[in-house]
Amino acid sequence: MTPRKAVTLPGPRRSVASQMIARLFSACAVALFVLGACAEREPRPAESADAPTDSVETEKVTVTLLAHDSFLPTEGIFDEFTAETGITVRIVRGGDAGALVTKAVVSAGNPEGDVLWGVDNTLLSRAMQADVFTPYVTVHRDDIDASAVALSPDGFVTPVDSGDVCINYDKKWFADRRMTPPLTLQALASSNYRNLLVVSSPLTSSPGLAFMLATIAEFGDGWSQWWSTMRDNGILVVDSWSDAYYGHFTAASDGERPIVVSYATSPPAEVIFADPRPSEAPTAVAALTCFRQFEFVGILRGTKKEAAARKLVDFLVSRRFQEDLPLTQFVWPINRRADLPQEFLDYSLRPENPLSLDPAVIAARREEWLDQFTEVVLR
Amino acid sequence: MATLKHVTPRVHPSAIPPLAWLSTFVALPVIVLFGAHVELADVTRVLSRQSTLRTSWFAVWMAAASVLITFAVAMPATWLVGRFEFRGRAIVRAVSSVGFLLPSVVVSAAFLALLPEPVETSIFAVLIAHAYFNIAVVMRVVAPRLETFDTQLVWAARTLGASTSRTITSIWWPAVRGAVVSAATVVFIYCFTSYAVVRTLGGPTLNTLESDIAVRAYAIGDVGGAAVLSALQAAMICAVIVLARSFAHDEDLGLRRTRSSLGRLTGSRRVVGMGVKIGTLLVVMCPIFALVVASMRVGNQWSLGGWRAVISDDVIGSTSPLRALWSSFRTAVVAGVLGIVLAISMSLSISRLGVRGRWLDAIAVSPLLISPVTLGLGLIVTFDESWYDWRGEWWFVAVVHSIVAFPLAVRSLVPSWRNVTPRLRDAAAVLGASPTRRLFDVDLRIVRPAVVAAVGLIVAVSLGEFGAASMLSRSGAETLPVAIARLLDRTGDIVRSQAFVLATVLVFACLAALLVIDVGGRQPRHSGKESHAPRR
User: Fold this and answer.
1) In this complex, is the C-beta atom of A66 within 8 Å of any C-beta atom belonging to chain B?
2) Which pTM does this prediction carry?
């Protein structure tokens, strides 16, 4: 530090500074006010333009539905619900499912919203331990897949959809080389498939975590041995599902890996979101490698709008809403009465006996497993 | 040292609003989070982990290497822009800021497409991307200092027989040292806390403390552990800042009240200048070009399907792109207004107080210390009830952006206040100017280029910011980077193409905004104000 007589600026007179600040702040306040006014005029996304005019009889309540970033139902789907019940649904998205649950945990009892969409069976126990939800049994319970209801027998959460994370492969790549695609996890370890598989890391990606759990469900304590073999067999671990699928998978990028971890509903998405649509999906799923994920919805403990929140949960598992799920979220509805779109059925595969693990076991051992994974695969 | 010992820290009234702002939105949330979720056991548990040490070491050397590469890439263009007037100067300035604006998700995707197979997902990819991102920081912090450098000093030294190396060590270096060290510190900190780039381009094997914090908080659900790691990270950044400060004491040598006139490129310099200009534009435009190409491809074919969908506002299963554009815009405007008012107040009081305001300078950089994950969680547990339940309000994101951009804005403003001689203000007072008039017609006019640059920086940070925007919940107000990241994370060629369309829109919107801002900031130069600048 050089001792230096600082340039002797004369101290400002107090009046100068305070006037200046006052002026700047009033300008700032005006700007904010104007912006606020602009914002007010913007229509709320979930509000319907043709809301019931006889608002006298319907009570006006707004329920906040917290959801992860992938929750993207058809615009206007809640209009009907609003018309029937007078309840307006405000969707608030906040990151991926892991971030959503962590935020719900730190604000347990004093929630950010009233209903939470998107806690899955890999995260459920973490939320339950933190006492995030308040129980409610939906009126549609009898229509819901019983195996899903069994995951939360006390009714703290209600299952809403399910999906499978599986090995996907590029059909053309294997056909061109007259090779058999890998149909089991065990087969993947064969040297025939050296340098062909790309997966996303369980530390940063939800399908990556599901796939790690699939190997644990399949091999038990021998799971890390399988990963160690795979490492020698040239497995590529990348950061996110999109890196894997769109950075390295031959069917979806210029990449060089024809086997990828993705969803069982990726093949229909490949068809439905292609322009022009191919007659047949370019990719296929290895049914024996699938791990089933369930998503749940729950009423957040501490909500001041519990009655309205219950009605929303009922709507979310009702046929009307459930039928919107396949083509917007590419998941299977949980309501057995829901009709599925033909194009979804045509290209989708629903594994008969998917791999699964008890949520309580996942919660208890998740950190240990992830550390082990880091040690074996990422070191 | 004697003079320093007797210096008592003082507060200037204009520092009160920014201090209150930082205490409310940075200090308080962090304290609340630690109070609620951290136990002593977390500290020992995290610090004794082998991986903590390994991660810290990697983050340090990776950030240091990034700084060196960033300067190597950015200095030629910074010199050109800071010292010379030439055709396309505003464009070079604006274009080189683009890297800073782009959401890291998008840049990473572009680099993955550009880099050859053996280099992608390696430490090299990370370093190159960091350099790309931070060109703007070096240019925006160092170029204004070069602009106000008085070349007459160099001529004087030359006349007195100084060699080239002597002029560099005795005149140039002392004059720019502060700015260079400032920029280097900021770049170091950004790279040290890098998250998305390290994740995507480094692959899962490379980890910074920041990415470890996110893993602990979200994947494992260990909030206490994440908070402890972020405290460790803050301590390390503090150490870097203290170290940097011992190099970067301010020198007034060679700085003048207003911009000295810029040189013209003549003769062989013209060729070199041309080379630097074209080289920089190429480096910066390459990933953008890759984006534009990607936006016009669906699968393996050329198609404008993505553009059609975005223009007709019909993006599959997403909030509308136009709404995302609008929320990005309003967030950036509010963040810009808030940020510049706070940064002007803070930088004014730092420069008015001289050495007695050093502590304010230290406080001004405090937002850089805080991990976005920790800050986000802190805000959620703090502003959570009755009238101050602001979680989920769209403007809350703007508040956070004003804080994220604050250190950079203050840094770029502080040197400029020193360009205002008190005598000029006194003269105005004698001539009957009111205090407000003096502020607007004297001070703010002289610092106007720096203020404009700072607004540009805040707007840039806000437009490209992803972490806080994706972390804080929001209702129907996703900003463009969030919308892009979400589209990139879905299956389907059309969806992917739409993500690149939005990224292209974002880049060109930002480019246009920056050009306007830069051109706007240049105007006073032609009003002949140089002649008013008194020479000491």
Assistant:
1) yes
2) 0.78
